[in-house]
Design a protein that fits this description.
Elements: H1 7-26, H2 57-70, H3 72-76, H4 91-94, H5 96-99, H6 110-113, E1 116-118, E2 123-125, H7 127-137, H8 149-161, H9 188-198, H10 200-203, E3 210-211, E4 218-220, H11 238-248, H12 262-273, H13 307-312, H14 316-330
Antiparallel strand pairs: 1-2, 3-4
Bound molecules: heme C (2 copies).
Length: about 325
């Protein structure tokens, strides 16, 4: 019988098989695959390219929505073009790069996860309601009508931003990072010196920030005082503030190159959130008090920890007690 292949071809075939096996063994299983889309598979979420916004009526709304996020004060601030209904901050002050920055409180998971049940409301919340939450609490302003052009534009922008995220998914890099707890209470005294060394240059020692030359918008937004976010805002919770500054402040920092230690982030959060700011009462918040987050600074609480400990920590004992309570309910 004739040989199927010459011995040279056999050597070639076995070499190829050998190389393929060795390559499989040495390739790490979890190595990210080099696929451009969808963004979730390739690791950290990134926003679609703004050049891809279509030149249509819908595209115009997306662009208007983006402008409202980036320059809210210009449209809705104390001297706004459309209304005078916010404190002069921009959404972008806290949702960096128009809500696209990884761990910069981005909007990647908004369209994919809303409407959703929220413990603060005790009911299912729509995107419109969530936007109004930030308008009323973070911008100390008035809610937008769901039928207004402005609300529709903000929604169009969030839908466009989240187009590469599957329904129900929360991509890596969404929102704000949860820092590891300190085993002590965060220290306002230590935080004051962090603030003086690393923040005051821009936000000023008074914490009041600095207006642009136009006198309308902020170059550096205020961190406390009459024009800052209210005590009902998310950043008034220590973990949200600490996570936000760790990956984003001083301005220019990012998750790859943070400029603060975790301790500095917690302590400066304590200092800033110990300063006076507008008070707003939202009496309907957390209708089920056992669902309050560990760092919600206002009672009543389902546990016996003080309001002081809920504001500044240490938080581990509170979390442990919370988990214990949840367990007792189950069994
Ligand atoms: C002072 C800071 C601040 C400002 C200004 C602000 N926000 Fe927020 N926003 C937050 C924080 C903090 C959260 C909650 C993040 C978390 O808990 O991870 C949030 C959450 C949100 C969410 C939900 C995100 C999600 O994935 O669940 C939306 C939507 C939102 N903001 C819209 C807006 C809009 C629109 C504006 C401007 C009108 C605005 N925000 C201004 C701080 C701010
Ligand atoms: C180099 C200037 C600079 C420094 C230093 C700096 N920031 Fe900021 N900060 C900014 C700017 C600019 C923004 C708004 C970002 C935007 O709109 O894109 C901002 C936004 C913020 C916000 C959200 C908006 C608000 O006003 O509440 C917080 C909180 C904040 N900074 C805290 C800090 C803390 C804490 C430090 C020190 C660890 C710090 N920043 C250092 C420039 C700075």
């Amino acid at each position: 019988m004739k040989k199927l292949f010459s011995s040279r071809v056999w050597i070639l075939i076995s070499t190829i098989i050998f190389v393929v096996i060795v390559d499989r063994i040495f390739t790490k299983k979890n190595e990210p695959k080099k696929i451009a889309l969808p963004a979730i598979i390739s690791g950290i979420w990134s926003a679609p390219d703004t050049n891809s916004i279509p030149h249509t009526k819908e595209g115009e709304m997306v662009l208007y929505g983006r402008a409202l996020i980036a320059n809210t004060a210009f449209y809705l601030g104390p001297k706004g073009k459309i209304s005078h209904s916010t404190n002069g901050m921009n959404c972008q002050n806290c949702h960096l790069d128009a809500g696209t920055k990884p761990w910069g409180n981005n909007y990647s998971a908004v369209f994919s996860t809303y409407p959703k049940y929220r413990e603060r409301l005790g009911a299912v919340e729509t995107i419109e309601q969530r936007v109004n939450d930030c308008l009323e609490r973070s911008l100390n302003g008035k809610a937008l009508d769901s039928n207004s052009k402005e609300m529709k534009a903000i929604l169009a922008y969030m839908k466009w931003l989240g187009q590469n995220v599957l329904k129900g998914q929360k991509p890596k890099g969404a929102g704000i990072l949860q820092l590891v707890f300190l085993e002590r209470a965060a220290d306002t005294g230590k935080g004051k010196s962090v603030f003086g060394n690393k923040c005051a240059k821009c936000h000023q020692l008074t914490g009041q920030g600095q207006l642009n030359a136009d006198g309308i918008t902020f170059l550096y937004p205020p961190l406390w005082g009459a024009q800052s976010f209210t005590d009902g805002a998310g950043l008034h919770r220590l973990s949200r503030f600490a996570g936000y500054v760790k990956d984003n402040m001083p301005f220019g920092a990012n998750y790859k190159a943070p400029q603060l230690t975790d301790e500095e982030a917690w302590d400066v959060a304590a200092y800033v959130n110990s300063q006076p700011r507008p008070h707003k009462t939202f009496s309907g918040d957390w209708p089920n008090i056992s669902q309050k987050p560990f760092d919600q600074p206002f009672g009543p609480y389902a546990d016996s920890f003080s309001a002081q400990q809920h504001k500044y920590g240490p938080f581990s004992p509170i979390q442990k007690a919370k988990q214990g309570m949840a367990k007792n309910k189950l069994f």
